[in-house]
Amino acid sequence: MQTLYDHPLSGNCHKVRLLLSMLGLTYRSEFVDVPNEAHHAPWFGRINPLRQIPVLEDEGTLMCDSQAILTYLSHRHAPQWLGDTPETQGYVVQWLSFAANEIGNSLQPARLYYLLGEKVDIEAVSAKGRRVLEVLDAHLADREWLAAARPTIADLACVPYVALAREGHLPLDDYPHVIAWIARIVALPGYISMPGLPPMAN
Ligand SMILES: N[C@@H](CCC(=O)N[C@@H](CS)C(=O)NCC(=O)O)C(=O)O
Fold it and tell me: What is the pLDDT of residue 200?
């Protein structure tokens, strides 16, 4: 049984929950109360010295970082989620980096500022967030998925904080292609929601 060190409001954890659900993999969720500093306890430092969730524990393997966990799970269980040509595999990594860097430094901290009062330069991260949404909307204007002709882990890595952007006071109304892409992900078999995300399609 795999263990996911997890928090229900974490978009990074949700990337992993989405793939686990879409692959039909069972796991145990170990709640880490990050807003109340549980990740600074000594036991968690032994799980992840960076003191971040998500972490996946799988038969003695500890895997930190949501992008790395998506890659690991796909290699183990469903390589079609990694792209199947050199080009699409490169594009997948490009969008995983975008999720970790551009999204992780804009939409994610904007949300934390409004939800938890985290100290960030809200003007700067909001401007970056709008740029991220513009880039995504333009990219999705003439394609269904970010990196290939089918959904890949690139889509799962990017979607949570994009779909949660409204919680960071960055509404999606001006980004119709992003809205349509989110709807396509919601319609995928195994999609699961979290607070702030669209509910499962009927
Ligand atoms: N690059 C990491 C970022 C993970 C991350 O930012 N996790 C947050 C929760 S969503 C966290 O644990 N924050 C605690 C901290 O950094 O002190 C990933 O993609 O997993």
Answer: 86
DSSP-H helix ranges across 78-152: 86-98, 107-116, 122-139
pTM of the entire predicted model: 0.97
CATH number of the domain located at residue range(s) 2-79 in this protein? 3.40.30.10
Query: Does 10 contact ligand 1 (Cβ within 6 A)?
Result: yes
- Which stretches of the chain are assigned E, i.e. beta strand? 2-6, 27-31, 55-58, 61-64
- CA of 8 from ligand 1 middle (Å) equals 13
Distance between Cα 162 and ligand 1 center (Å): 16
| Segments of the chain assigned to CATH 1.20.1050.10 | 80-186
Q: What is the pLDDT of residue 202?
A: 67
CATH class of 80-186: mainly alpha
For residue 62, the CA-to-ligand 1 centroid distance in Å is: 16
pLDDT beneath 50: ranges in the chain:
none
